Amino acid sequence: MEWKEGPVDGTIAVDGGTVIHEAIVKGSGTISQGSFAIDGRAARLTISVDLSSRAANKKPIVTVSTDNHPFSFFLLDVHEQYPIYIPAYGVIVTEQTDERSYEQIERDTHAQGLLNQLQKIEAEPEENFENAAACTRDLPAQTWLGLSRDIRIFGIGFRGVGGEELLWDWVQPRFHGFETALPELDDHAVRYRFMLGRGIGCVENISRRLEEGVLPILHSTIVDDDITYRTVSFASYESNPLNEQTLRGSHYLVADGYGFGHMLNEEQTAKREQLLPNELNPDEETVLYFRATATNTARVPRYAWFKNPVPNAIMMNNDKHYTFDNLSGFVQYSSDRVCCVSKLNGEPLTEEETAILILPGETAVFEFFLPHRPISHLRAERLIKQSFSSRLEECRSFWKGKLDRAARIRVPEQRLDEMIRAGLLHLDLVSYGIEPEGTIVPTIGVYTAIGSESAPIIQFMESMGGHDVAARSLQFFLDKQHEDGFIQNFGGYMLETGAALWSFGEHYRYTRDEVWLAQIKENLLKAYDFIVAWRERNRTEQLRGKGYGMLEGKTADPEDPFHSFMLNGYAYIGVSRLAEMLAASDPVKAAQIGEFAKELKTNIREGFHQAMALSPVVPLADGTWVPTAPPWVEHRGPLSLYAESAKWLTHGSVVARDSLLGPLYLVFQEVLQADEQSAQFLLQFHNELMCMRNVALSQPYYSIHPFVHLLRGEVKPFLKAFYNGFAGLADRETYTFWEHYWHASPHKTHEEGWFLLQTRWMLYMESGRTLNLLPGIPRAWLEHGKSIELNEVATYFGPISLHVESQLEKGVIIARISSSSDRKPDSLCLRIPHPEGRKPSGVTGGTYVAGRETVTVERFTGSAEITLHF
Fold first, then answer.
1. Side by side, which strands form the sheet with 8-15?
2. What distance in Å separates the CA atoms of residue 857 and residue 829, rounded to the nearest whole number?
3. Which of 229, 517, 621, 835 is deepest in the core (most CB within 10 A)?
4. How far, in Å, CA of 681 to CA of 676, rounded?
5. For the segment 233-280, what is each residue's pLDDT rounded down to a tens digit?
């Protein structure tokens, strides 16, 4: 080991081996039994280790403990050809036969001209969707259609879209996460399968799109040679009009029980059982309305084919459980259990399978209306008379009304512009509760709500001005709170209490609602007391150096009951936010909680830095090495490096625990600062060991590193993660997100929520009393003629509006910012990156900082106009 500069002193310990020789070979000093002190500028020592007694399942690890830069390394990782070179610590580890000095090894390493992965990203052009899409997997998904607030929804897909149904076009009624079961099918789930055109062929000839790219109204086009089938699908009511006044929704406990992973106590279960009969047998069903228009594009007559929906057909027709009435066009399980009504060219369908000759340029129209559960014959007679066009217009108006009531964001990239609005509606679609004032359960894909995974959903709703919906969603965690203050709703997860407190704190930052706070204060303090008691049982001498003062428990799916950094970071940020919430109304209690939060933060930082010192360093692509850290204090280094034999593969990845539940969360949770050296280490080894194209594996939106990049002003790495993240996980036509890369959990709003929050942060982000605007946007968004608009978006400082217009052919970019809030930020920091990286010749309206391409407005009064001249 050679240090660039001395003096240096410390200790050396070998786990899994025995030191049999130690000596100082450069510099003067002493060394004995692993303790050393070296004087002078140059410092080099050697050790020899006997490995004969090491356990077969343990990799020998050497730990060098010094006051400033303690570090560890795998002994068997030491090679003369590739020395362990840690420039941040000014130390090199190599084999004893390597006689090169520190300076020579440093020079040899740099002479190779290598770049680490993050440096390569910085050297590349900024990422965009087209490039990301060409390099990532295309993952189409089924589409969920519903009314919002109501658990009676429908999944719909076409011949192979979504990777699950290759033979048919199909519709599946769902009670949120659970597929709807029917007694006629022996209480098995029902899926209605139908077919447009001749069937499956060698050409993949289908495309899909949401209405206007945004609304939960699905359009598809299937080209079958000379016949083109264009379909429209949406959900509405059976007979009542669909509007804000008629929307009833579903009770949150009923919805909670239809989400996978739910945890209901005996009282909640009993209440849910009482509610179910009325909830499942309404006077008004939700209905999937479907229309297919077949058009002949040939110059001669051509046939179009239609196959009516069949319940649970497999390879061939399945007519054991239903009958088709060719007089009424009804599919029915019995004379009074009708599951579908169908029409062809406006008249009741007379044949389940039909071919119809269409003249050139003419059309045939096939429609079916499918209630969520079977209805009576009388109700079916009324249903078939419904006007598809009228219902479509009504549905369109309903969803547009929701967008009209939200803040407005417009960006000059059509896909992202649509994804922002479509995403907001996707979140709303599966947020269930009784309208207009009941508790809402903010579900996540097929799962029920989780304090952690629901957080980005709730907080993006806040960003778009949906504070009422957010407050009702937060109420779910209070309604389900345990008597001892514990908040836990899903699968034994232990991190929900802290994560929920964080979301409560964010709601307070947005609203400063003291009346709301007073109403829930007792619940929040119970949650705080639970965390205090939890921490207290971890303040024992036996835990010194092993998680003292930290919380232990299962963080996510894996059964890992350890002192994890993610779990503790959520507890810290949650309690910290609670102190902030109470500062005005109860300053004494707030100070007490704040002191507790400070102590918890100290314990977490101590545990983290000790874990980093004990974790083996790893090589980067530029020839340098960096320290690492485990996801919890009980392990040495990333689990995926297998310091000890174990089975860490989970959810399709050996690095999932390290990456998705790892210590990078501590930056997001305000335990570590983004500009700390340790944060840089975390980003570096995470990027090279656990990412592809700066995107984590398995369930990538659990990884928080894109946010850390933004905090550090690293725009290119952020954009690399941002574009490759959604290009590989979201349906590129309908924008629906999956949970994983193997078609697990459709309509996964946790992932979509994080994507939307990333978009929010790239557009605006608070920092103390400063509002940072456009901190992460691509340069291409400011090409001539393009504009960016934020209209009344919600911030910690109240609603803010921004309009940026690029008129580069006239040599200017103009930005206007306004706010009528009484909580305006003290200052603004507006980033205006020129498309070609040029610096302005002059700036009016603020102070330009060239290195950051930003304009600062001090003492913001509520209105500002900034012009950059080029």
1. 29-32, 35-38, 8-15, 61-66, 71-74
2. 6
3. 229
4. 9
5. 999 999 999 999 999 999 999 999 999 999 999 999 999 999 999 998
